[in-house]
Give the backbone structure.
Amino acid sequence: MSATANEVWTLLRELVAAQQDTDRKFQETDRQIKKVVNSLGRLGNRLGDFVEEMVKPALVRLFQARGIAVHEVHRGVSAERLGEAIEIDLLVVNDSDVIAVECKSSLSNDDVDEHLARLGKLRRLLPRYAEARIMGAVAAMVLPDDVARYAYRKGLFVLAQSGEGVVIRNDSGFVPVTW
């Protein structure tokens, strides 16, 4: 049974139309996925802001209880020099100490590593703290125990929610690494 040339052309036109329709559906799906990803990114940023707002009021009290007499908290500190840049969520300072706090909705080992790299640049990019003892801290809404242990072993203060407040999860024998 053979098809006539007209039937073949009709089938080809239908196939092309179906392919174009499929392409349009894929493009729409791709657009919807991008929209969801953007929304999730904005939500993640808002959750990070929430963590900062949750942690910020407790920082002075928490670090003073650890014997670090801090009295200033600065939010959203950024610096750029010589082609390098850093952004610090919360910077807790006194006349001789600086604690850079990274706040995340959910903290990972990669986030800890990125913060350690940031701490290595802080003295160079914020020279007003060149003579200060620089320490680091991480805070998160979701803080897996293995990530908390990793941050602790790297010499960072680990802050997390406990009940209605924020606590430093490091034990009393913890000695922070200084940069």
User: Anything to note?
Assistant: Residues 57 and 73 are 9 Å apart (CA to CA). DSSP finds three helices and six strands in the chain. The chain has a mean pLDDT of 88.
